[in-house]
Amino acid sequence: MKKREQEKKDNVVFFPDLDKRLLQKGLDAIQEKQFKEAILFLEEAKERNPFHRDINIGLILAYYELGLLEQAKHLAKETLKQDDGDYIHVLELYIMILVQLHEYEEIVTTIEGLLEEHQIPANKIEHFSKMLLFSRKMAESASQSQTDDYREEESEDINNSLMNLGDPQEEMLQIAKMSSQNIRAYIEEVKQYLLDMEKNPFLKTMLINILREQEYEKEIEIQKFDRKIVIQPTALKDMKEQEQYKKIITILVDYVESNNPILFENIKMLIDRQMFLLYPFALEEYKDETWAAAYHAVVNQYFGQEDEEEIFVLYELDETEFEQAKTFIYQLEQISYPNI
Fold it and tell me: In terms of domain of life, where is this protein from (predicted)?
């Protein structure tokens, strides 16, 4: 009798691969945007296999999509502590969550620790070093804003230094201050900044978004990457509403999301970052399928997966255009954050 009772208590162990089946149900729910349902499946899977990397990543994504940022942060931090060599995309998810929470000091601590322990791959060191310096500046700014509130002095700083600072991080802080003031007071300096080829395109996008948010209606000229355009900020679509962006994402939904939603989310993160850098310009020259395939291949390479031939066949590509698109993506990735 006791033996039978014990078997009843422990009957969960008699379902082979239950954690894998729950994981698949959770990933299917994520794909269908049913994030609450995904959390139920993935939390149950995690109870049975607490250290399964894909279960944890799926749960992080589901928490994030539902706005449960503290839970997402806690689980991402826990997952990073696991002895898993393939952790870079977990780190990027963790940092993305911390940025949403404005926890820049934690970003600094995390990246500094990984750099000291030589845990970041060589091809990502520059990227994370830039993010480290960016976060240090933001942490310092947040700390200062808790003790100082000198609006007049800030206005004078903006007016006098945006074109003259020469330090992209200082420029970024000044531009951030503009979002809470009337940008029309600084419009001549903004116009100069948007036309200056030496200025960082990331920061130019920040300015363009402020102009949109403050409903600036007059035409203004922008220059990025040897391209120039005259735009009316109020007429601009949000980056994610642009046709090219939507088409590329739709292609990736069809080719990637159903088979590997975690890979899809990482590709989408890279596209979001680079489209922000280019905005309001679009990716030029090649078909949407070529760009989708190129981003797919680049993220695969970041994860150590070398299956470009399969991607080439899947998307039916022109090889030269595919290689050139990848080269452009790598070039953009070098300046996804302000150069220090």
Answer: Bacteria
Examine the domain organization and report whether 173 and 223 are in the same domain: yes
- Provide the number of structural domains found in the chain: 3
Cα 177 from Cα 142, distance rounded (Å)? 12
CA dihedral 26, 28, 33, 35 (to 10 degrees): -10
pLDDT in tens, 133-151: 878 877 776 665 554 444 4
Distance, CA of 165 to CA of 66 (rounded, Å): 40
Residues 130, 221: one domain? no
Q: Is residue 177 in a domain?
A: yes
DSSP category for residue 307 = -
User: Which run of H or of E encompasses 228?
Assistant: strand 227-231
Q: What is the pLDDT of residues 237-275, one digit of tens each?
A: 998 899 999 999 999 999 998 888 888 988 998 999 899
Q: What stretches of the chain show up as alpha helix (H) in DSSP?
A: 2-9, 18-31, 35-48, 53-65, 69-80, 88-100, 104-116, 122-147, 151-161, 168-178, 187-195, 201-213, 243-252, 261-278, 288-302, 308-315, 319-333
For 30, the token pair is 């994520």
Q: Kindly report the CATH number assigned to the domain that includes residue 25.
A: 1.25.40.10
Q: From CA 197, how far away is CA 175, in angstroms rounded?
A: 17
Q: Token match 């990736």: residue?
A: 252
Distance in angstroms between the alpha carbons of the first and the last residue of the chain? 71
pLDDT score recorded for residue 148: 47
- Peptide linkage before 233 cis (omega within 30 of 0): no
Q: Domain containing 124: what range?
A: 18-140
Q: What is the pTM of this model?
A: 0.59
Q: What is the pLDDT of residue 208?
A: 94
Please tell me whether residue 167 adopts helix, strand or coil conformation.
Answer: coil
